[in-house]
Design a protein that fits this description.
Layout (H helix, E strand, L loop, with lengths): L2 E7 L4 E7 L5 E5 L5 H11 L2 E6 L5 H4 L2 H8 L2 E5 H6 L3 H8 L11 E3 L4 E4 L2 E7 L8 E5 L2 E5 L2 E2 L2 E2 L9 H12 L7 E4 L8 E2 H7 L4
Parallel strand pairs: 3-4, 4-5, 5-6, 10-13
Antiparallel strand pairs: 1-2, 2-3, 7-8, 8-9, 9-10, 11-12, 13-14
The structure holds zinc ion (ZN) (2 copies).
């Protein structure tokens, strides 16, 4: 089973994940939203090699470390096709450049629903969960689910940014996440209500579901 290591990075407090295969020491970094020196130091402490930089979605707070991390590691950037397309639009680019965060360099590996991202002997399953952004995705390996800004501990992702849809977000969570086993661990994209939860706990106590 994949190893999940969580660190909090950047001015927006993004939960960044180093996911690694214990047998091969191959790894991916999910959402390097800043503090790239800290991410690289953690990667070195863990003794793993970064193969992929994976964006749960294209928002600048989650991808602003992509360029520096790619330069340092040579890893390939992975994003869902709908966010690749959405975040290329000039009106979207200019909206988010107001935040002063760096956009991602071009995506190397475009994925969609049903794809898997292979890290050593482990596979991350891509679950397309539109709503927070058009191409938001969650990543599943066994009992570990990385939810990005789709599902937080006791909360949901915002849907008031361009491309957001509350109807889509609730559909995504109900149809694709809440159907997973109750002991599936939820690893959110920000630690607003806590840094980890389970699907069962969110079903019972998340007031927005
Ligand atoms: Zn976001
Ligand atoms: Zn975010």
């Amino acid at each position: 089973m994949i190893q999940v290591h969580q660190i909090t990075v950047g001015s927006m407090g993004v939960c960044c994940y180093i996911v690694s295969c214990p047998e091969t020491k191959q790894a991916g970094v999910v959402d390097p939203g800043g503090d790239v020196d800290h991410i690289i130091a953690t990667v070195n402490d863990l003794g793993v090699d970064i193969k992929y930089i994976i964006a749960t979605h294209g928002h600048p707070d989650h991808v602003c470390g992509n360029r520096a991390l790619k330069e340092a590691t040579g890893a390939q950037i992975v994003m869902h096709k709908d966010d690749v397309e959405f975040f290329e639009k000039p009106e979207v680019t200019s909206y988010f450049s107001m935040l002063g965060l760096e956009a991602s360099p071009p995506t190397d590996v475009v994925v969609e629903e049903g794809d898997t991202i292979t890290i050593g002997n482990c596979e991350l399953q891509v679950i397309h969960t539109p709503g927070h952004t058009p191409g938001g995705m969650c990543l599943l390996n066994g009992k570990n689910l990385i939810t990005g800004d789709t599902l937080f501990v006791g909360g949901l992702g915002r849907t008031d940014f361009p491309g957001g849809s509350q109807i889509d977000l609730l559909d995504s969570i109900r149809q694709k996440l809440l159907v997973l086993p109750e002991d599936t661990v939820v690893w959110p994209g920000h630690g607003y209500g806590g840094n980890r939860s389970t699907i069962g706990e969110e079903k019972r106590s998340n007031p927005f579901l």
